[in-house]
UniProtKB/TrEMBL annotation:
This is Cytochrome P450. InterPro entries: Cyt_P450 (IPR001128), Cyt_P450_B (IPR002397), Cyt_P450_sf (IPR036396). CDD domains: CYP107-like. Gene3D superfamilies: Cytochrome P450. Pfam families: p450. Belongs to the cytochrome P450 family. It comes from the Bacteria.
């Protein structure tokens, strides 16, 4: 029995494209030992089948009390991944606590409520396309699609859903970006976390004073009217998680989909001809270039064997979504190929990029809707849109958690036809 799967892979805090390393690790097995920032030992589950089993395993917990190194005081203050382990909310809760928190939040993500947001999301999308066009005109034909379109769309949606006033949104994006970064120092990490909590406390106070038809107001009402079912730390922790998960993931999804289509014009042409749908593009992007690469953390509550590898109890384990999406054992020998007609595309379970089991992403239907609307409207308006630089010139996200690029400069039309 293998208890190590070879030399531990040292995760690069600066992030970068994960796919080469993923392929090398997958060739050795579905589970790999890793070294996290600060020389913290951990494991990553990379294989599709292994990850699916792990995510739903009854002996796997999310609560930080199961994190042995943290419990024993071996994690230094300002560790860049601390928030993922210690924030109070759904992603770090187990059992009854998880069910309680999830039930409170799930009311905002019912199919009916999500569908009711469609006309507003379509209107927001059209306005942002106007902004993108103006930015390109002012920029000599080139604009950063990530900044002017892929970011403000999901931030606007999650801001509306949570009741976050527009004045806070840019700052919240900056701070959440620092929280998911893995290359920042302890002082910067601590400062970003403190400020993020402070801003969201101000948001909660504003909603307490002026309740509205939003999730924050509903959570405060649940806290105040139902015998403190939601404590203050849990309220702020839930807002932290919602802000990060509610826009960073969709931001990366839209960005990665546009990159994929620009790099595979045959696939874009196929969709334009009606040979596949925009929902197919979203699903294939989720599989082929998952917006989250390695998500922290889960902990076995006892030693467990997965894909022939022993994971000791209390080990911090990363869910390797970007690796699982290109696992050839699950997706065939052409798993590295972007193909919107890939068999089984109608089955949302063909990839794990939005999770699996009890912690499956509550916002998945909303993220899918946002991305589908965004891509359809973007390419309907700018069918000849293309990258303004080569793919290998794009600067990668400074994180091994988020998987995307920092900017996405595009031309909305070939230079000869740009106004």
């Amino acid at each position: 029995m293998d208890t190590s799967s070879g030399t531990p892979h040292r995760l690069d805090p600066a992030g970068g494209c994960p796919h080469v390393d993923n392929a090398r690790l997958l060739a050795r097995g579905g589970v790999a030992p890793v070294v996290l920032p600060g020389d913290v030992e951990g494991m990553a589950v990379l294989g599709h089948d292994a990850l699916k089993e792990f995510l739903a395993h009854p002996d796997v917990a999310k609560g930080a009390r199961h994190f042995t190194a943290l419990r024993e005081g071996r994690i230094t203050p300002g560790w860049p991944l601390t928030t993922f382990a210690t924030v109070r909310g759904m992603t770090t809760a187990d059992g009854d606590d998880h069910r309680r928190l999830r039930s409170l939040v799930s009311k905002a993500f019912t199919a009916r409520r999500v569908e009711r947001m469609r006309p507003w999301i379509e209107e927001l999308t059209e306005g942002l396309l106007d902004d993108l066009e103006r930015a390109a005109r002012d920029g000599g034909g080139v604009a950063d699609l990530r900044r002017h379109f892929a970011l403000p769309l999901p931030m606007g949606v999650i801001g509306e859903l949570l009741g976050v006033d527009a004045e806070y949104r840019d700052r919240l994006h900056h701070l959440s970006n620092q929280v998911v970064a893995t290359d920042i120092g302890p002082e910067q990490a601590l400062a970003a976390n403190r400020e993020l909590v402070g801003v969201l406390a101000a948001v909660a106070e504003a909603r307490a004073q002026r309740p509205g038809d939003d999730l924050t107001s509903a959570l405060i009402a649940a806290r105040d009217e139902e015998g403190n079912r939601l404590g203050h730390e849990e309220l702020i922790g839930t807002l932290v998680l919602m802000i990060i998960a509610g826009h960073e993931t969709t931001l990366n999804l839209i960005t990665n989909a546009v990159r994929a289509l620009c790099g595979h014009r045959d696939q874009l042409d196929l969709v334009a001809r009606g040979g596949a749908g925009w929902a197919d593009v979203v699903e294939e992007t989720l599989r082929w270039d998952a917006p989250v690469s390695y998500f922290p953390f889960r902990y076995p509550v006892r030693d467990m064997t997965l894909d022939g590898t022993v994971i000791p109890a209390g080990t911090p384990v990363l869910a390797g979504y970007s690796a699982a999406g290109r696992d050839r054992d699950a997706h065939g020998p052409d798993a590295d190929r972007f193909d919107v007609t890939r068999p089984g595309r109608a089955d949302a379970a063909r990839h794990l990029s939005l999770g699996h089991g009890a912690h499956y992403c509550l916002g998945a239907p909303l993220a899918r809707m946002e991305a589908t609307i965004a891509l359809e409207r973007l390419f309907a308006r700018f069918p000849r849109l293309d990258l303004a630089v080569r793919e290998d010139e794009l600067s990668r996200h400074a994180s091994f958690v988020g998987n995307s690029v920092r900017e996405l400069p595009v031309r909305l039309a070939p230079p000869s036809t740009t106004a």
